[in-house]
């Protein structure tokens, strides 16, 4: 699994081992994203939005983690969360601002279990 000095900075890839690349395509292997459909449906209902929005959120959130972003530290969250919101807005997948702050607080708890999966890969 790749590790980053700075989130979103891929300049170090030239120095990485061959294990970080797909031998057939030469593409960088960032990691896996595993999303539970049951969890998507549960969280969509809990947060009051569509399964499509929850699924999109979890994919964007997970991709940002694979790119080296995090949200445990408030300083890191201040970088990751606006990127996450921007990507979803550009996809026209938004939620009402009234609920956004509550959602960000819950996201910090990382209900998608991405930290557990990333720790397992290390």
**Beta-strand segment tally:** 0
Helix content percent band: 40-55%
**Count, helices:** 5
Oligomeric state of shown chains: single chain
Shape: globular
Compute the average pLDDT: 78
Category by helix and strand content: mainly alpha
β-strand percent reads under 5%
The major beta sheet can be summarized as: none
The ordered H/E elements are: HHHHH
Instruction: Specify Rg, calculated over alpha carbons.
Output: 15 Å
Low-confidence segments, given as residue ranges, are 115-122
**Cα distance spanning the termini:** 7 Å
Structural description of this entry:
It is a single chain. The longest helix is centred in the last third of the chain and has 17 residues, at 74-90. It is globular and about 45 Å long. The model is unreliable at 115-122 (pLDDT under 50). The chain is mainly α and 122 residues long. 52% of the residues lie in helices and 0% in strands. Helix 1 (37-47) crosses helix 2 (51-66) and helix 2 (51-66) crosses helix 3. It has five helices and no strands.
Give the helices and strands, then pairings.
Elements (H helix, E strand, L loop, with lengths): L36 H11 L3 H16 L7 H17 L6 H12 L5 H8 L1
Supply the key terms.
single chain, 122 residues, mainly alpha, disordered C terminus
Short description:
It contains five helices and no strands. The protein is an all-alpha fold. The relative contact order is 0.15.
